[in-house]
Amino acid sequence: MFRFILSRLLQAIPVLLVVITATFFLVRAAPGGPFSAEKAVPPEVIKALEAQYKLDQPVWQQYISYLGDLVQGNFGPSFRYPGRTVDELIYGGLPITAELALYAMLVAIIIGVSAGVFAALKPNTPQDYVPMSAAMIGICMPSFLMGPLLVLVFGIWLEWLPVSGWGDLPGDKLLPAITLGTGYAAFLARLSRGGMLEVMSQDYIRTARAKGLPEWVVVLKHGLRGGLIPVVAFLGPAFAGLLSGSFVVETIFQIPGLGRFYVQAAFNRDYTMILGTTVFFATLIILFNLLSDIIAVWINPKLRHQVQGGS
Amino acid sequence: MPLLEVENLTTHFHTRDGVVKAVDGINFSVDNGETLAIVGESGSGKSVACYSLLNLIPQPPGKIESGTALFEDCHQQKKDLLQTSEKDLQKIRGNDVAIIFQDPMTSLNPYLTVGEQLIEPLIYHHDISRQKAIERAIEILGEVGIVEPEKRIHSYPHEFSGGMRQRVMIAMALITEPKLLICDEPTTALDVTTQAQILRLVKQLQQQRNIAVIFISHDLAVVAGVADKVAVMKDGCIVEQGSVEDIFHRTQHEYTKKLLASIPEGAKPGLATSTNDSQKNDTLLEVRELKTYFQDHSGGWFKGGKKTIKAVEDVSLNIKRGEILGLVGESGSGKSTLGRSILQLVPTTNGSVLFDNTNLTQLSKHQMKSMRRRMQMIFQDPYASLNPRMSVFDTLGEPLLYHGLVTRRNVIEQVLTLMDEVGLARSAIRKYPHEFSGGQRQRIAIGRAIATKPELVIADEPVSALDVTIQAQILDLILTLVEKHNLTMLFISHDLSVVRYIADRVAVMHHGKLLEVGNTETLFANPEHDYTEKLLSAIPVADPTKERERQLAALS
Questions:
Q1: Between B162-174 and B130-143, two packed helices, what is the crossing angle to 10 degrees?
Q2: B108 at the A interface (CB within 8 A)?
Q3: In 3D, which of B109, B84, B108, B114 has the Cα closest to residue B96?
Q4: What DSSP designation does A32 have?
Q5: Per-residue pLDDT, B281
Q6: Rounded to an integer, what is the distance from CA A25 to the centroid of its chain?
Q7: In which band, very low, low, confident or very high, does the pLDDT at B419 lie, cut at 50, 70 and 90?
């Protein structure tokens, strides 16, 4: 198992290197730069700024020195927030975004898995069609539509919940979490329905019924474990996706998370900030993928057997 | 009064294509300590009949239309199972009536330990603590012949062999001391020696506990040994029913006679005439000291222990042109690996394979490609080995086009000729595998194998997934094709009666080694090796009197 994890971590290094290299040269290939701003700035000021941030050096030298900094865990200074490093900015926004993503994940799992399992118990009946149609709508509806709709209904018409902010008013975390989570809930519902349908037609489910077990034991004990394997495999990428995809929701609900830095950095040509957030999210995606693979191995004894040799 | 008395049981499946009368008004009964065998081919409704009793058929599309099934439960009360509510049935399933399913590979939950699955019936049916249940589970695992049960109880199903898993299934069925045991083809997925052990175990446990057994099987030879009464089913009806002696010795119905006649028995037909000596001296395939090893990664979670599995160890044999060599052995003996090693489908470790004086182990991938046309394989499972998204035309046309044997223009003509040869209707050319029965699918697979006009065909258990009557047809088809195209064949099978029927010579494999090779009749009459003798004595005979004698002999 250790060898499995280790080899997966080693495999991550070239992936990250490709991500860094591609991003590094792409942002520099885009027209404009961090200091080509709206108002005219004297050329000597720009010169001084570029010298300060080493932008006057050849690109390959910048690349080497950036990699050198990165190895030491240093994302470098932000070009647009003078005096602050990218590290500070990321770690400042991360807890809020992580909290939002976590709640959204809970929403997605609770709603998605239960709807999917429920639908799979009576396939091709209204009990299947209704939640699955709802899931289809959930997948199709973008969060910039879902968010304002929820705000309109629960915030303005019913006046049950606050419409913006994070941790200021009771219940203000609910709407953003639901907005962010529903899309993934819909995905999880479809995945868990498919997984459960597959498992419930297996011979060993018939064996469990033949033992005289009550139906809920058959479903929850014998069915769920195998049926949720596709769901578990999706959870890692989903959580990484929630973390990196939260900026729309953060903007709608005015949440001071990580997402808005990411978008603003792209507009501002804040090279180090774009690179820093990209590398950070890439690392998260790799780590969460690995995590969901480990969980998949843990719940499936057959895979456990295969992984032992470390391949 | 018998323990279970079924009258006029009728189960229909309402499908889109109309009503399928899976079980159509059948009557049978079984008493304590008695074994009733229900015999029939796949689709005859024998399993559906038994599952209907416990409401284990999928509903919809299934529906139990009518009938009564009076069963005496543990409180000596008569109950009609078909009128019992699902809640009360749950109390009977796994408690009064237990089932052993056909395929031990898929019938155990792969995600739970064997122990966890064993104790479930006890915990849900009896007021018993977990600790007590585990103790009982260990005890019964020992009874069914699992070594070191206190350790194996923590293992997962995939850590057991097929025979061992079936023992676990038996333990699980018997742990609650049921009064009726339904065995649905319990040994079909197992090889002969394991089959003999499992049958003996069921019989012994039945006698100890005086339980009634309903034994569902397509194999008349197995039934001859275990049953007291036999019911023969066809198309949802019982066509004949009576004592085992009546069915086998005083057969009434035409269908039963046909079933009995389909059992491969005796030597290869026309053996004397087919020895065409001038050709037979010409050796087509020669295997010399072939070794195929695998690395096995097993051990604990954190241990990287490696073990070398010697799947094929020092095997030397040769096959002459136009000859059928039967290769027999139990599952895990390495016979399939040998077949694949000859075709270079798995990397060999050492030794040589001379095909028409060319050493295949020395060839490059590219050179091997052109040799592939001359050697083909027929696989065991016609359900899994055909691509479900390719029609008959695609499956048969692909090798022809790939090896450039036909042009796109005349490929249809060739495919139709092939279909004639293997006995498929020409109109089926655009159909997909799922639209065919098992036997027809195997005809497609055979057609695919002979499409390129190969010289050598390796058939890996080609009939073991088929019913007896179909099996007989396919064997005859293979014999015809071998004769007509002067094919050379390595026929791999665990079924010795099939091999005896088809092969000129027989080779016996055990633990990766070749024990002996000899002319079929000589080897069957006078096996040299002890293991061969053991293998031969494990073959069930389709004759209740002889079978009883044979079992007595095996015990003493």
A1: 130
A2: yes
A3: B84
A4: S
A5: 64
A6: 25
A7: very high
Q: Give the integer Cα–Cα distance in Å for A23 and A271.
A: 9
CA-CA-CA-CA dihedral for A77, A83, A88, A90, to nearest 10: -60
| CB proximity A308 to B under 8 Å | yes
- pLDDT(B311) > 50: yes
> Rounded CA gap, B130 and B122, in Å?
9
Per DSSP, B389 falls in state: T
Question: Which candidate in A5, A122, A127, A204 is best for mutational testing of the B interface (most B CBs within 10 A)?
Answer: A204
Give the model's pLDDT for residue B134.
92
Model pTM score: 0.74
Query: Which of residues 302 through 331 in chain B touch A, CB cutoff 8 A?
Result: 302-304, 306
* Residue B484 contacts residue B418 (beta carbons within 8 Å): no
* pLDDT at residue A307 is higher than 70: no
Q: Does A14 touch chain B (CB under 8 A)?
A: no
CA-CA distance, B119 to B109, in Å (whole number)?
13
Quick check: A206 and B92 CB within 8 A?
A: no
Q: Is B95 on the interface with A (CB under 8 A)?
A: yes
Contact B258, B67 (CB under 8 A): no
* Model pLDDT for residues A96-113, shown as the tens digit of each residue: 888 899 999 999 999 999
For B248-271, letters b (16+ CB in 10 Å) and e give: beebeeebbeebbebbbeeebeee
Residue B314 token pair: 């020092």
Percent helix, strand and coil across chain B, each to the nearest 5:
40, 25, 35
Higher pLDDT: B65 or B73? It is B65
Tokens for B178, please give them: 């049921």
Q: Which residue's entry shows tokens 């078909």?
A: B82
Q: What is the CA radius of gyration of chain A?
A: 24
Q: With a CB-CB cutoff of 8 Å, which residues 193-252 of chain B face chain A?
A: none
Torsion from C-alpha of B391, B396, B402, B407, nearest 10 degrees: -100
Query: Is A212 in contact with B306 (Cβ distance < 8 A)?
Result: no
Task: Quote the pLDDT of residue A305.
Answer: 66
Q: pLDDT tens across A50-69, in order?
A: 777 777 788 888 888 888 88
Where do the H-state alpha helices sit in chain A? 2-29, 43-52, 59-71, 86-121, 126-140, 143-150, 174-200, 203-210, 215-217, 224-227, 229-244, 247-252, 259-268, 271-299, 301-307
Q: Please determine, for residue B327, whether its predicted confidence score (pLDDT) is greater than 90.
A: yes
Work out the average pLDDT over B123-145.
88
Average pLDDT over residues B293-300: 62
> What pLDDT is stored for residue B554 in this prediction?
64
* Segment A6-24, tens digit of pLDDT: 888 888 889 999 999 998 8
Contact A203 B106 (CB under 8 A): yes
Contacts of B515 (CB under 8 A, 6+ apart): B508, B509, B529, B531, B532
Residue with tokens 């036997």: B439
Strands B212-217, B35-39: pairing kind: parallel
Q: How many CB atoms lie within 10 A of CB A241?
A: 19
For residues B98 and B181, the answer to whether their CB atoms sit within 8 Å is: yes
Q: Are residues A213 and B306, on separate chains, in Cβ contact within 8 Å?
A: no
- With a pLDDT cut of 70, the percent of chain A lying above it is 96
Strand partners, B320: B283
In the sheet with B78-80, reading across from the earlier edge strand, the strands are: B18-30, B4-15, B62-72, B78-80
Predicted pLDDT at B556: 56
Count the residues in chain B: 556
User: Do residues A177 and A100 touch, judged by C-beta distance below 8 A?
Assistant: yes
| A310 close contact with B: CB closer than 8 A | yes
Using alpha carbons, list the distances in angstroms from residue B543 to A26, A280, B471, B486: 81, 75, 20, 36
> Which CATH class for the A86-307 domain?
mainly alpha
